[in-house]
Amino acid sequence: MDWWPLVWSVIKALLIVTFVLANAFLIWVERKIAGRFQRRLGPMRVGRPHGWAQTFADLIKLLSKEDVVPGGAEKWLFLIAPLVAFIPALLVYMVIPFGPTWVVNDLNIGVLFISAVTSFSVLAFFMSGWGSNNKYSVLGAFRAAAQLISYEVPLVLSMIAVVMLAGSMSLNDIVKAQTVPYVLLQPLGFLIFFIAAIAELNRTPFDLAEAESELVAGYNTEYSGMRWAFFFLAEYANTVSASAIMATLFFGGWKGPLLPPVVWFLLKTYIFVFIIMWIRWTLPRVRIDQLLNLGWKVLLPAALLNIAWTGLLGLVFKI
Amino acid sequence: MTDTMYLNMGPQHPSTHGVLRLAVEVDGETILAAKPDIGYLHRCFEKTAEGLTYPQVLPYTDRTDYVSAMTNEFAYVLAVEKLLGLEVPPRAQFIRVIMAELQRIANHLVWFGTFALDMAAVTPFLYAFRDREKILDLFERASGARLTYSYYRIGGVRKDIDGEFVRKTREFLDYFEEQVLPEYHRLLTGNRIFEIRTQGTGYISPELVYAYGLSGPMARGSGVPWDVRKNEPYSGYNRFEFEMALAEGGDNYARYMVRMKEMAESAKIIRQALDGLPEGEYMGKVPKIIKPPVGEVYVRIESPKGELGVFLVSDGSPKPYRLKWRAPSFSNLQVTEVATRGEKIADLVVTVGSIDVVLGEVDR
């Protein structure tokens, strides 16, 4: 019996888990980036140079905090919600190809798997919002639910157009099928995906479920310590995975000249992570009804149009 | 949902600008009623003033509207001077105008930052505070303090301004007009999200302006041409050329535009005042013990937030018999409930932000 493929898979899986956990460093990166945007320095004190150990300090602080469950909370919902947010955020990485062979499990339904797993996050928002026994949290949960319904549809439709072009749902096949990056064939589709992904990630300008200036902290108002940290880590893991999916579906994933595939993949991914952060620290937040209008009245018709365009491409040019 | 929900926004809430509590009744996201509940910062300022001599009251006025302390002192010293019938030397008048207009810019910068922050745009906030810092440095140079200055004195100002102050102020004005304002407009004014958030929300009709006694940018944003500096010039404001910032919209966007324009106009006034700064005394002839004759006066000025009125009654003793502080924020805040009815929770936050409320002044 040949054990080697199994061992190799475990090593790859461990590497990817390490990669995901390393994303905790994005907390520090984002604070530094935000600082630069705002003519500040960002964290400087913990660790030299440039406060690189800030993330560790944050983690130690969060680990040592008391795990508070508010009175009147739905205990089970409240306690489980952070895990429901965090685990799907990890699961997405299972199907993302880091390189031609660097993928934990190249499912032949990869795109479907992604859209299914990422929808879990709203369940977590709703559980935490409802379970917290807090009015702000409930409002945040309502918003998250409304937001998900209006954004999931254009998001999935824009991914379908890519699947139509590639003729496969496996992400690795999609990458291989891209003789030119699909963003050139799918500029509208990419735009829709990008906007919808930010909404899905709950980041400014679509961070309505959290909405600090209105709902204090929205669905996670009552969370503290490590449970809050799980929401936070999930947010960062989702940001990276959404960026990775964008790079994979529209920018040729690990494809690229000269440099090794993994480097290309990471480069593309982190450019998107940077852009998402950039948007976050620049734009104000939209209102819930405006967000729903954008989803249903603009993005959804545009996504359908995009599918028609893709069909035309296939019919006329036999791409 | 059939039931409505009561939401207690504040006094601890990220965007209530201090200790304002809003008792909000919502149906889902829609506001049915948002009643401001005030009084959490009440410090008996008016009553305290009755136990102090006239000069002793001055530092307390700083602490009403602590974001624009200079203009509070301005209103108070004008009232006492009117009681006494004092003449203020021209140089002191010019210095007062310079300080008041610098303070207006500083105040509007704080407002600009927090208004953007209410819409989750964090970066403008830090930009605004970076630029406000420069004004505070100027104030520190002139008065020695950075927040509560006690710089205006009955009869003049505490200290003369020197050439270095004039030079640095000009430097700041150049920087402000050429870099800061265009940068803010690029960052926020043309932003589509900012526009859809502010245009059409928090509408206040001109009738409401009269009914609620709104003043300052709140009135001018609804197209009511009321600026005390223009309509009832004090301290020589008629010497300067400036436009009254006016907008017709009546919504949050109109009030935003009014304040942005006002900053530019203030810069113009300061330039004129620096150019025409007369030589001479910076302090008038003031008696050692201030004992105004029996009588009462009402003096109003255009503070950055609106019409700041001081009603002062003297019984001939060295202490005021009664001091009434007509705070613009107090009147302006009352319109919250009418202006936000039927809007969303997010709009409530923006509308309260557009009022530019400072609770220190509301509660006094």
Question: Can you characterise this structure?
Answer:
Chain A has 319 residues and is mainly alpha-helical. Chain A has one domain. Chain A contains 14 helices and no strands. Chain A has helices at residues 4-22, 25-37, 54-63, 75-91, 110-118, 120-131, 135-166, 171-177, 182-185, 187-201, 212-215, 225-250, 261-280, 288-317. Chain A is globular, with a radius of gyration of 20 Å. With 364 residues, chain B is α+β, with helices and mostly antiparallel strands. Chain B has one domain: Cytochrome-c3 Hydrogenase, chain B. Chain B has 15 helices and eight strands. Chains A and B meet through helix 7, helix 11 and helix 14 of A and strand 1, helix 4, helix 5, helix 7 and helix 14 of B.
**Structural class of the helices, strands and pairings of chain B?**
alpha+beta
- The name CATH uses for the topology of chain B is Cytochrome-c3 Hydrogenase, chain B
Mean pLDDT of chain A: 83
Average pLDDT taken over every residue of chain B: 87
Q: Shape of chain A from CA axes?
A: globular
Instruction: Quote the distance from N terminus to C terminus of chain A.
Output: 43 Å
Shape of chain B: globular
**How are the strands of the largest sheet of chain B arranged?**
1-2-3
Radius of gyration of chain A: 20 Å
In the CATH hierarchy, what is the architecture of chain B at level 2?
Answer: Orthogonal Bundle
Low-confidence stretches of chain A: none
Along the chain, the helix and strand elements of chain A come as: HHHHHHHHHHHHHH
- Give the number of DSSP strands of chain B: 8
